[in-house]
Amino acid sequence: MHLRNWQQEVIDTFPSIISKYRRFILKAPTGAGKTVLASEIVERFFKDKKIVVLCHRLVLLEQLESALSKKHTVRKLAVSDTGQAFEGYDILLSTHMRAKDVLADAITKADLIIVDEAHRVSPNGKGYKRIIDDFDTNGKSDAWFMGLTASPERRTGDQRDQLSLAFDAIIDCANIEDLIAEGVLVQPVYRSHFVHDLDLGNIDISSGDFPVTKLASAIIKSSMIDYALRSYMEERENLSGKAISAWFCADVSVAEETLRQIELFNIKAAIVTAATPIKERMKLLASHERGEIEAMVSVGVLVEGWDNPHCNIIVHLRPTLSKVLWGQSVGRGLRSAPGKDKCIIIDVSSNWSTFGPVEKLQWSLWSTRGSHMQFMNRFNWIGEQQDGEDSDDIYLLCKNELANKSRCSHIYRKNEHANDTCPVCGTYAAVDIYKEQKLDSSLNESGLHRLFFKRVPKVFEKMNMSVWERLDKSAWKSATDNEKVFLSFCMAFREVSGDETKSESEYWDAALAAETSIRSYLLANEFWIKKQEDFDLSLIADGMLAGRVIRTLQAHYGISLCGRAFQSHSPAENERKYQKAIRVAERMAMLGCSSKDNLPYFKAADHMAA
Predict the structure, then answer these.
(1) Predicted TM-score (pTM) of this structure
(2) What is the pLDDT of residue 156?
(3) Which DSSP state fits 247?
(4) Burial letters 486-513, b for 16+ CB under 10 A, else e
(5) Distance between CA 170 and CA 149 in Å, rounded?
(6) What is the distance between the alpha carbons of residues 184 and 32, in angstroms, rounded to a whole number?
(7) Which of 492, 478, 447, 455 has the alpha carbon at shortest distance from 586?
């Protein structure tokens, strides 16, 4: 089998990966060829071994069965199956809810468990929790638990439902920009509009995202669909070939209204939802792939497991706080095909300005409680690009009034078009989003970053180190819970490696090594940190200023730790140390620290025994 460059690199390094990790995720973009990679891994390293492949949807099972049956003896588990696993076959395909007794037997016998769309793994859910527990307690000691996904993150405040409890590491296999350069994927071209009359401010997001019923009502009352249709009609005329589009909607009512308006332009369109019978769905999708249906309007079924390489326009009609949903849906349009050199992404949901381009998304196995709240600011990503008002990354919002009395509302980057005129309407009637929305970064990471790199060298220069370096036990012993979080950050900055990392897995290896060192120190001295509801960046800022929350002893001792590292490392190394230290402090605050710690990388009982 001919492998792509990134697939061959994973195959070459796979022995090293499984020597370091027992539970890991292989991350690669949608369309990169993860199923082919999984088949090759089985063929090269697990031939004639027992394999379990899990996914959450029947349509994904069908695709996996087709791919893996070419070289292996495969059995797709039926709901009514009984008996022992692996009788007459080597690979068992199943959703996590099928024939639980057979699946439980298979987990104990498997040499490798593969989970497709691994971001769906819920360590605290009914299905996957049982599987993970079976693997940990009854699985073979030399077996592996391997996930495949383009978006390895669960944005949840439930600390029992974090991907880090199911997997130990993310292995970066390929990124979108490299695959575009190789011609595997095409370039996404974003057309983003801010719909002024879409009111999301009063919608309850305690669930972690906008509830679809409230969201659907707000969308239909707004001009969002009008913006989408106007943009679509303009973009389809500029394509070199026939337009083949996928429309992502919040619910059926939005999809039906969208379909009605599309058909007013005599465009052949159809709807698929979770309620569409599988045979009818496959028939419609086949017609869409052949170009007989131009616009496929969907509710929740095209985000995963659907691939039409000819799709060259994605229309996003679903505001979300889920970076996974945004990344997965846009990725569906990036597969390459003959005559296709780009995919137009029409976003009228403010997801581009909230999360940024999908090729720039960053992922983590662990998220904090309430971390989705930052995405309520629908200009979150744009604000992050401006580290102060003198930044070159300035984005403009066009306020030109059109003939139909609506605003153009296109978002575009300053200095990329002649005289900064809007590339959509051709006028200059724009405002600087950063200034207009007052995206002040005083309490975000950009503001803290500036304060930290300014204050530490200045304060450290005047410190008498012969005094402060002997006060570690006093600073920790008398520290409040907030002060312990601040000291954790400072200690992490001292401890963590400033070396450049080539992948997210290397990044987290370095960060967790520093965290382990801190936990070992605290355990040895019986200094405990109480688990907190949230991680407040202002605590670190307060410590830099010896302010109202962090007292002088803890503030100055912490700065003394950071100052030593400043002197002995380059600016680039200090930048990398700072970024990791923030993540470590966040974890220490959210997870706490006690003699009962039982984390994949730190088990307090083992350290106490040693």
Answers:
(1) 0.77
(2) 64
(3) E
(4) bbbbbbbbbbbbbeebeebbbbbbbbbe
(5) 10
(6) 7
(7) 492
